[in-house]
Specification:
Four copies of one chain form a homotetramer. The first copy, chain A, has about 210 residues and is mostly helical. The first copy, chain A, has helices spanning about 5-25, 30-35, 40-50, 50-70, 80-100, 105-115, 120-145, 150-170, 170-175, 190-210.
Chain lengths: ~210, ~210, ~210, ~210
DNA sequence: AATGAATGAGCCTTCATTCAT
DNA sequence: GATGAATGAAGGCTCATTCAT
């Protein structure tokens, strides 16, 4: 593969990430992408085979870049406590999904795929979401205690991640309800604190009941 | 308007609710709807003017029916405590959004609209979500105490509703991750309990800190 | 189906017959057909579903019209001799396939399909060619004698129909070799005589050998 | 031209012969040919200028090879009788056109060109078919007698070659009608016999009438 | 000399919409 | 009032060809 080829491919990938994130798979047209990337409409089929293949590559590309920058253990040191690991989880989740303009695509793409699944959702689940959730479950279990009821652990994990995803999914609604208070990259720290505050009180409360 | 006309209109509305909920606005075609409703392809434009107008009517129609059946105070008696009112909120939210096959459309449609807003989102926010959220905020404030910090009240409200919406937004993913454990109408009670358990521990913890 | 619909459908069918005969399936575009038929490009898909379906309908339509006008027993009276029936076969074959400007399509379409088969060839064979050939075989058997060797009967049938098809397949070449002697509708009688002369001498010779 | 260049050119020619014969001019894509020949897509235009030029070269190449291997006088000795020369004509025709897998292309290509002429048909006629037919006419005249009516000679020649071409043109149909009896290289001898039997009886009968 | 990359024209098909009854 | 027929715009994709190295 020549240098130009790789460049064009990458430009298509970057552009497509934005356009797919903005309009969704169905509404996005190849001509939109190629127009913005300043390449011929045939370029997509040449480099990726089809619109669908391009889309899958975009999903992979966005995820990879997001996790590279903000891994699940973002900012964590060796021997961190479960609470610290939970905070890193929440913090990196928010950063990954909308903490950075350049990574904006990832959260939106995943969200769209969850709401209006294409054949790519299986890939997303298998290559990302499953291990993400299992990572969280392990932390929650550590906090609740290893002998905590499994169903409780699962439910608390859902409650925890649900608080995080809310800021992603309801962004459009929140912006309309309180336009003066747009959630953005600069709010990530504060939101992290709030989610941690809420969650730790809940988990400690539930953990306490067990040990008593 | 003749009786047949009204019937056709209604049948279109019902069918369109299902089809839009299943496929989303962009992917749904007028022929899908008319085919399933067994009416002429021109019927949509005749009765509703355009695909978009039909869609807006569908949103209105689905919301109205959902709230009629499951109001925010569902199952609540006079003089209920804040905790009871919170439970009614969570319970009715889950029922309204996916507690009933006939109402399945509402939650899915709202969710889609949040992720990929059309001009109808303003309507949805103004006519439903805003008051829904304010209702929740009032309950949370009552639990945390009237002198609780407003930002804390807001954050806790988001954490609370985020747990609820999670079951809606992540349905497709959860089904793929644990196919044997599909969340449905029969799980609403249990999920309500779990969310309440988590949330009340959090709120009580936060409330306790204040009074201390 | 309204009258206009039937008219449009028929016009498309007639036009498509000509265009497919002129250019072949692959080279023909829907725009060629619709342009000549003065209808929108979407009309083909509306009335026939696809280019391929239209093509199959064209093949059926052309065959039906050709056989209606020139059946295998064209000009034949009751109690005709095998020789007379053979002459009717050859004569009607030539007339059907290029004896008439209006029927020009049928022969050309069949010929094209034989040389460059599409999925429609099976249909052509099953619905037309098979019975055509069996009809000929029966006549040849009657001339050669009922106890004639089956392989001989088959071979002679092939030799007979091969003479007929030659005038169809080699038309383009003959026109180039002897432009002054174009084979057309006015030559059908003479060609029929020539084929009959050749064939009857052959069959009688082969038949004579048997009886001796 | 370097050696590799000549090799690539030849490989393209060989491959293209097969592909054009299999799919026809219109349906064949340059990528099919280059893919099978394991060369770059630009190679066709580089070595031959265009798809059409390649096609013409293929026709020339296939004809040349076919006639080299099976000339019109294939297997004939000096002083052969007209009947022997006729047999050599028929025999070599069949061998040339589908007697050999390696030569399969020639018959099919010529046939396709006859049914859907390109500008290459003139070349084919001028450089091959015309002399082929004149060769046959001379033989037929010799058998019928030098004073035979010219029109009769021509007609008998057409009837003779028509029997031969039939096995080429109707191959796809015969295979569908009697799949167990595929005509191939191993049947050439038998078919030659059958055509000769039929034709000689016809010609002798017609010749006899003259002399009587 | 030879190739991978890129192009623009064109194809079939689909769609929401409008027309004419 | 209601419908089958028809439309034009657009979409994804394919192709022979050309460009730039």
């Amino acid at each position: 593969m020549s240098i130009e080829s790789a460049e064009t491919r990458l430009r298509l990938l970057e552009t497509a990430t934005q356009v797919f994130a903005e309009h969704g798979y169905a509404t996005t047209t190849i001509r939109m992408i190629c127009g913005r990337a300043k390449v011929n409409v045939a370029a997509v089929n040449y480099h990726f085979g089809s619109k669908e293949h391009l889309y899958r590559e975009v999903l992979r590309y966005a995820r990879q870049r997001a996790y590279e920058k903000y891994p699940l253990t973002y900012g964590l040191e060796e021997g961190a406590t479960p609470e610290q690991r939970l905070r890193a989880f929440v913090h990196s989740f928010l950063l990954r999904n909308f903490g950075d303009v350049r990574n904006l695509g990832f959260g939106t793409l995943t969200m769209r795929e969850m709401v209006e699944p294409t054949s790519a959702l299986d890939m997303i689940v298998d290559e990302g979401i499953r291990s993400l959730f299992e990572h969280l479950v392990a932390i929650v279990r550590a906090i609740l205690g290893e002998d905590a009821d499994e169903e409780l652990v699962q439910a608390c994990s859902r409650s925890t991640i649900g608080q995080c995803t809310f800021y992603l999914f309801s962004r459009t609604v929140m912006n309309r309800m309180a336009p003066e208070q747009q959630f953005g990259a600069e709010d990530v720290e504060r939101i992290t604190d709030q989610i941690m505050l809420f969650t730790l009180h809940a988990l400690r409360g539930l953990s306490g009941k067990k040990t008593d």
